[in-house]
Amino acid sequence: MTLSEIKDLVMFQTNNDSEDVGDYLPALEEYINDAYDRLVNVWANTHCGTEEWPWLQEEPEPDTTETTETDVTDEVTEEVTEEVTEEVVTEPWTLDVPKTPEWTHKYLADWATWLVYRNGNPQKQQRGYAFRESFERMLAKIAGEGGANGLDENGNRILYKFFRNIPR
To answer: pTM of this prediction?
Structure first.
């Protein structure tokens, strides 16, 4: 899922239209990046904001503008239209699609949904608890399986589980 698809899912889960996403920005992107940082912390035992684990940010559209120039030669006017594309510079260490497994992307929207609901009245907070619990169960599952450390060199799950809270 891309960041915009995750935002649309949050809007759907909070019973809002996708067109209303502007009302929730930039807080919504911060909520999704908070969830991504928590996920990366459990998955890879690190935090976002590095070259290996960049923050989520939408890829901006390149700015395409047309310029018209007029050349006058021998009393003939010829219009030349050129298309100029400006290169968009994104912030360093950002990407549009999370680097974690695809099955974890939906849970980023669950955490962001909880953060949207927690700011409301007690009834809205009650609706958000299910999304919070869903995200926390996913984190517990990843931690129980060892995250990225629980995979062999081919990306297959190692058969034994990693246990937490056991002194070494």
So the answer is: 0.69
